[in-house]
Every structure is written in structure tokens, then in C-alpha cells.
Amino acid sequence: MKILVVYFSRSGHTGQVARELAARCGAELEAIREARGRDGPRGYWRCAWQALIRAAPPIAKALKDPAGYDLVIIGTPIWNFGLAPPVRSYVRQYAGRFRQVAFFCTEGGSGDQRAFAELGRLCGKAPVATFAVTEKELPEPAHREPLRRFVARLATG
């Protein structure tokens, strides 16, 4: 099975999990790139505001065509108890090209179910599996076993 892990990461946490996931399932990686950065306090407040209003900000064109993959795993940080806006932009642009999907997120403690539900609606299909990593689980080895179970569900999905 050919797998693509697509993710957005502002702080690096979602990127860390995306790299671990890709290594475990032999997937290719693609970071969602924005047209405008989110550094500093203004960037942080823009994150919160765009998450609150469920914005879909401009993103750069994807380098990899998701239609060329059997499974696209979409990763997002949880912002304001929901999906990060750059991920929303990516899914709106490419959802028609996904064969199968799975979702993962990094979060402070809640918001994953709301984000996964929105991703499912935007993709127009149910995920084969989902996986949430809380802030407490980020350091290795806390999320090693849940990540292994997620990868196992992908194989049987």
C-alpha cells in the first residue's frame, strides 16, 4: 500500500508525530505550507482567530499528488478545540483526490473528536483509523504503544 502522511505543524509537535508515523508505515511525508508564517505573538493570535472562525487560509500548492496514494493520513494540531485552518484548506483543495483517509492530531487534552468529525465531513468519507496524542503523551515512549496500535489499524483498515 502506498501511503502519504500530510500534516501541518506550527510548534513542531505534529511534525514529530508525522515523522514517527511515516517511518513506522513506510510512508512519504508532505508538510502543508502556508503562504504567510505564524511566528511571534501576532501569529499566535492569528492561529486562535482563524480557528475560531473556521477559516481556510491560503496554502502553497502540494508537492505530492494525493491521488497517487492508496491512503492519505492527515495530521493536525488542535487549535481552539478544532482543526487547524491550514489543514482545512488542504482538505478542501484535495479531498476529491483521496482514496482512503486516516487522521491524527496532537492536542493539549481535547478537541480531537470535533476535528476528526470535521475532517470526515470535508473528505466525504470515514477514516480507516484515528489517533490523538495529548501533550502529556508527546515525549517518547508515552505514545509508542498507541502509535503502534494506530499503524496496525491502518494495515487492517
Report the helical percentage: 25-40%
- The CATH superfamily name is Flavodoxin domain
Overall tally of structural domains? 1
Largest sheet: 6 strands, mixed
Structure explained in plain terms:
This protein is an alpha/beta fold. It has a single domain (3-156), classed as Rossmann fold (3-Layer(aba) Sandwich), CATH 3.40.50. It is built from five helices and six strands, in the order E-H-E-H-E-E-H-E-H-E-H. It has helices spanning 13-25, 40-52, 85-94, 112-123, 144-156, and strands at residues 3-7, 28-31, 71-79, 82-83, 101-107, 130-134. Strands 1, 2, 3, 4, 5 and 6 form a six-stranded mixed sheet that branches.
Write the layout of secondary structure elements.
Elements: E1 3-7, H1 13-25, E2 28-31, H2 40-52, E3 71-79, E4 82-83, H3 85-94, E5 101-107, H4 112-123, E6 130-134, H5 144-156
Parallel strand pairs: 1-2, 1-3, 3-5, 5-6
Antiparallel strand pairs: 3-4
Question: Can you give me a brief rundown of this structure?
Answer:
The protein is an alpha/beta fold and 157 residues long. The chain is built from five helices and six strands, in the order βαβαββαβαβα.
Any descriptors?
157 residues, alpha/beta, Rossmann fold, 5 helices
